[in-house]
Amino acid sequence: MTDNAVQFELVSPEKLLLSEDVEMVVVPGAEGDFGCLPGHAPMISTVRPGVIHVFEGGSVKTRIFVAGGFAEVTTSRCTVLAEEAVPLDEIDRTSVEKDLQDANEDIRDAGGNEVQLALAEARVATARAKLAAIDNLVYQ
User: Fold this and answer.
1) DSSP state of 31
2) How far is 125 from 123, CA to CA, in rounded Å?
3) Which helix (H) or strand (E) holds 19?
4) Residue 80, class by beta-carbon neighbours within 10 Å (0-12 exposed, 13-18 middle, 19+ buried)?
5) Fewer CB within 10 Å of terminal CB in the chain, N or C?
6) What CA–CA distance (Å, rounded) separates 119 from 4?
7) pLDDT in tens, 31-90
8) Contacts (Cβ under 8 Å, ≥6 apart) of 88
9) What distance in Å separates the CA atoms of residue 49 and residue 27, rounded to the nearest whole number?
10) 78-135 pLDDT, tens per residue?
11) Which backbone phi and psi does 41 adopt, to 5 degrees?
12) What would the DSSP string read from start to end of 49-95?
């Protein structure tokens, strides 16, 4: 790793999705997006549903949607443990819209079951975040 790069690792429950030296990575933290560059102060953050942007050569090289998780940052590394991760260009709008509709129906059908309600609400939030990510590309 060079002095002008940060080691970035993205891990989902299924596998290690990405492990490489990058110029910068921007992570959707629970309290706002944060960028990781070499020399970043150590921190741990929860990750909200949104897009991780990986930069090389001053522009975005990779966009990956994450449904939430945790991030650990050191002076030379950023590791994200994601609940779900998928490259943004692999997200199918029709499938997401269908999932959003199904999740909204599950909310209506949950009745007094708090667990089912919470799971359905999380699916709604993730589906809405996916649609927002598709419609509003940042860092172009």
Assistant:
1) T
2) 5
3) strand 16-22
4) buried
5) C
6) 41
7) 999 999 999 999 999 999 999 999 998 899 999 999 999 999 999 999 999 999 999 999
8) 51, 63, 64, 65, 133, 134
9) 10
10) 999 999 999 999 999 999 999 999 999 998 888 888 999 999 999 999 999 999 999 8
11) -65, 140
12) SEEEEEEETTEEEEEEEE-SEEEEE-SSEEEEEESSEEEGGG--HHH
User: Do 70 and 44 meet the contact criterion of CB atoms below 8 Å apart?
Assistant: yes
Give the DSSP H or E segment for 18.
strand 16-22
15 and 50 in contact (C-beta within 8 Å)? no
- Is 114 strand, coil or helix? helix
Residue 124: which H helix or E strand, with range?
helix 114-135
Q: Is the pTM of this model over 0.70?
A: yes
Instruction: Confirm if 35 and 8 have CB atoms less than 8 A apart.
Output: no
Query: Which residues face 72 on adjacent strands?
Result: 44, 79
**What is d(CA 63, CA 55) in angstroms, rounded to the nearest whole number?**
9
Name which of 84, 79, 75 is nearest 39 in CA terms: 75
**Single-letter amino acid code for the residue at 116:** Q
